[in-house]
Every structure is written in structure tokens, then in C-alpha cells.
Amino acid sequence: MTIRAAIRDEVASIRPFDELEETHRADSLAWIDSGAPLCRIGKPATPPKHLVSYFAVVDGDHILLVDHKSASLWLPSGGHVEPGEHPRETVVRELFEELGLVADHDIAEPLMITCTTTVGLTAGHVDVSLWYVVTADRNQEIQPERQEFAGVKWFRLSEVPLHRSDPHMERFLAKLAVANRGENRRTS
Asked: CA–CA distance from 47 to each of 2, 38, 87, 90, 128 (Å)?
């Protein structure tokens, strides 16, 4: 299977939470099927639409967010998918590079997909973001990437600064809550 086909399967595996996510998923599948380049090859925005792996590090009712210097927002960690790299490999790589963490579980399929025109200190471009969930103990030591982040903080899910976060964060937290309720029913 080609990496493009694997990425397409990853996007197709996402069950949309709402109409907006259905639109983003359909747009992303059409973009992948078009043969357009999927990965950023030049900073900050070449090509102007490219694939990103976000990963929400969670521990129970807490989420770890980074105060991203360039975006001036509290965001989940993540990074651009490199050419030839599967988005789950991006999660593993960036988890270590950005936070000094190693996942103690396999990275599961993404929970959510979004298409966002970025804002911040660099020119806007479209990030097609796959949102993964990584569980971790919030008491373990984190070694954040200091050049990229002004800070790193665990927030209660109910206290995430939505006014200064990704525009899709509230929807992600709602979808995460639904997924967690479903997971709790299966394990009870």
C-alpha cells in the first residue's frame, strides 16, 4: 500500500462528529484523491495546504496544551507530516521531539479531522489536521521544546482557554467526551 493510500485510509476511518467535520473529511478525501502534494516541503507554507498530526495528551479529565509562540495560542502538540511518513509516525516523532515523551501504547486512529486556515506570526495556510489522543500520566516529567513553546500546562478539560486555542478545540473536547463515555460503557 502506498503512503497516500494509507493516509486516505486514516482519514476515511474517522467518524464525523458533526456537519462541519463531515465537510472537512469530504474535502480532505477529495484533496488526497486529487494527487496534490500532502506534506509541507518548505516553511512556512509550501504547499499552501498540508497535513498535520495533532495529538492531545490526556490524563483522565486533564489535557496537556502548549503555548505555541508562532500561533500565540494554547494548542495540542503536533507537527507537520514529513514526506513518506505515516501520520501516526509523526505523532510518535513529535511526542518525543516536542515533549520528551514516549507513548506507552500504540497510537490509535485519529479521533477528529479539521481543515483550518492558520493565524499567527506567519502567513496563513491550510492545515489539514488529524487529531490523535495519547494517554499519559500528568505526573511524569515533560521536557518541552523551549524554542517553539512559551509554556506547557495541564488543563482540566472544563478549563481549557477556548478563547485562546484552536478554533476547533471546543468541538474536539465534546467529541472526546462522547468517545470517553463510549469507552467507559465498553469497559464497565
From this structure: 20, 8, 17, 18, 12
